[in-house]
Amino acid sequence: MPINGVMVVDKPAGWTSHDVVAKARHILGERSIGHLGTLDPMATGVLPLVLGRMTRLSQFYSGAEKTYEGAIRLGVATDTYDCDGDAVGESHIVNVELEQIAASCSSFVGHLQQVPPPFSAKKIKGVPAYKLARKKQPVELQPVDVEVREFTVLGLEGDLVQFHCRVSSGTYVRSLAHEMGQKLGIGAHLACLRRTAVAEFTAEASHALEQIAESFSQGRIEELLIHPRRILPEIPSVTATDEDIGKIRNGRTVNLPEMSRSPFVKVFAGQTDLICIASRVARTLFHPKVVLV
To answer: Do β-strands 206-207 and 254-255 pair in parallel, antiparallel, or remain unpaired?
Structure first.
């Protein structure tokens, strides 16, 4: 039986996001599964999966904000900008104060142009940059507009800086670590990273793959799905009549009791069955944009 919903996985270290999707497909027997935002293999934490018809909601999360916690190791840069890479350049004695580090972090807050790491999936003439970097070929990537909404130091122990950051979609945290090392003049790389939130999906709602497998085997997988009313909380919800549901199934425009100024509305049949995202045509007149039935 198809599974339609959103589930948050706590991605383990060493797995790619694609690995997690493949494992979820195997566990659940559901082919239609996608994720909402790639995590590097070395990173752990929140990886929301959209299952079945809910994959159609991915378009609403293309610009989703992400939140992270992690550690930056000072004194040496790497070619991948994280702990999986090889050291480049000279290593430096770490002799900086916490205030200097905090000032460096705060200088990145705001809108900025960030150059993606050479070891990334960004493509150069159709070829992923990391494939060129592995062959020691030149990698010239264009800067990308990103926004760092928060980048704060939580502590300093030896050469490890504990940090918290909140960033726009497309931001590479390991690039922030690398650039901070350059700014301080001592080199740095991302030592560890844990994602704690993607949009409304948080670590508190995440589940290990082992827990997902156990719940599925016990017929309790529905308990791990995010309640549909909690998805896209910025979009108001309305409950449709049977007549309106019939019209929506046929792609017809409907009048709905929604009086806010939101351009979209989540339409439910009852309390838990999300049947579509509708776009406002005029006042209370809405047209189905993404139909989930």
So the answer is: unpaired
Instruction: Report pLDDT digits (tens) over 216-246.
Output: 999 999 999 999 999 999 999 999 999 999 9
Q: Helix (H, G, I), strand (E, B), or coil: what is residue 140?
A: coil
Which residues are CB-neighbours of 84 under 8 A, at least 6 positions away? 41, 42, 78
Active-site residue, 40 included: yes
**27, 42 Cβ separation under 8 angstroms:** no
Q: What is the pTM of this model?
A: 0.92
CA distance 197 to 194: 9
When pLDDT is averaged across residues 150-170 and rounded to a whole number, the result is: 96
CA 279 – CA 220 distance, rounded (Å): 34
Q: Are 226 and 201 in contact (CB under 8 A)?
A: yes
Domains annotated for the chain, with CATH where assigned, are 5-64+200-226 (3.30.2350.10), 66-198 (3.30.2350.10), 231-291 (2.30.130.10)
The neighbour count for residue 53, using CB atoms within 10 Å, is: 18
Q: At what angle do helices 173-184 and 98-106 cross, to 10 degrees?
A: 130
Among 10, 19, 40, 82, the one annotated catalytic: 40
Distance CA 275, CA 240 (A): 9
Arithmetic mean of pLDDT, 148-173: 96
